[in-house]
Amino acid sequence: VINKFYEIRQGTIGEVEDASLDDKCACLLHDPGEMWSFNDSSTAKYISSLEEELERVRSSVDDLRNKLRVGLEIENHLKKKVRGLERKKITSDRMILDRVTELRHYHSEHKVQIMNLLDMEKSHIERFVELVEEKIRQFDARGQNVHCVLKPDEYEHVDVHLSTDAEAELVSKGDMLNLNIAETKAHAAEALAQALQEKRDVLDNIAESKGDASEALAQALQEKVATLLLLSQQEERHLLEKNINAALQKKVDELQRNLLQVTNEKVKALLELAQFKRKYQLLQEKINNEVKQGNVLAEVADRRIATYERDGKLKSLLKKTYLRRWVGAPDTGGNEAEASPNSMDFVRYQ
To answer: Assuming Cys at both sites, which of 29, 34, 198, 349 could form a disulfide with 274, CB separation 3.0 to 4.6 Å?
Structure first.
């Protein structure tokens, strides 16, 4: 036994020296207690590595919190933008509906005015046509009266030539009749000329009235064309506003997709944070259990490769921070009762 402890002592010091049994006993008896407290340096290294990993975990948690805060700010900003776009859409829809109703009212008013103007011009044209027809009937009646006056004079002229008792009187009467006939012919010619002049005036008035009617119709058509142009402009404006609303809706959909993506990333970050905390608590529980049990470094070489071949940053953290790597394998029989509140915390984080 003395030889075995002396060999352990010399191996720890790094010296190989042979001595007698009394010298070995004296060396062993005079050694201080710190000489035989094994695994203290490895435990200190282990604790320092755990502290470093703890600092890394804390820094990663701070980064995740900062990312979460930025995500919340982005989410609030996007929500404000969406609300503003929705308000703009509602106001634009309301304004478009008001403009369309005003345009319909304006169109109906102008349509009624155009129909009234057309009815008035039609009544004027019918009145002028009736006046022209009345004048023509009057002129026809005057011509028939002139013919009736001329026929009795001819009969009297014949009677004058047939009578033989009063030839001188008949001659004088014939002269008078000739004068009367000439006068009546002159009056008839003047009446016909006057009738023709009046007919020309009537025709001119008809032409002027037709010109006025055509001008009124042209003006009405111009107003109608202007109204149709205004309607087309309003329709183009409506289509433009519709395209603007479609673009706004597309932008709102894109913002909603971005918001959903940010929300999913936030949920993933929260889940990763919960996993970090849970694994950190499990790690602390394992450290406490293994420190209490005081196991030694017996199974490090046997279980290192089979236990810690995993991927990821936190798995490498667990690989570095397992206590079995430093002091041996713990007994995990009594960890279920202590891990239940931590599992409840993990469920709460989820």
So the answer is: 349
Q: d(Cα 108, Cα 136) in Å, to the nearest integer?
A: 42
Residue 44 pLDDT: 73
- Within this chain, do residues 280 and 146 fall inside the same structural domain, yes or no? yes
Residue ranges of the chain with per-residue pLDDT less than 50: 146, 149-174, 177-178, 181-182, 296-298, 300-302, 305-306, 308-311, 321-340
Do 92 and 22 share a domain, yes or no?
no
The answer to whether the beta carbons of residues 289 and 327 sit under 8 Å apart is: no
- 98 shares its domain with 53: yes
Phi, psi values for residue 336, rounded to 5°: -70, -35
What ranges in the chain are assigned the alpha helix state H?
2-13, 21-30, 40-162, 167-293, 300-307, 313-321, 336-349
- Work out the percent of the chain whose per-residue pLDDT is above 70: 61
**Residue 292 sits in which domain range?**
40-349
Residues 172 and 146 in one domain: yes
Buried b (16+ CB within 10 A) or exposed e, 131-165: ebeebeeebeeeeeeeeeeeeeeeeeeeebeeeee
pTM exceeds cut of 0.85: no
Q: How many domains does the chain have?
A: 2
* Residue 298 DSSP code: S
d(CA 259, CA 78): 7
pLDDT computed for residue 264 by the predictor: 87
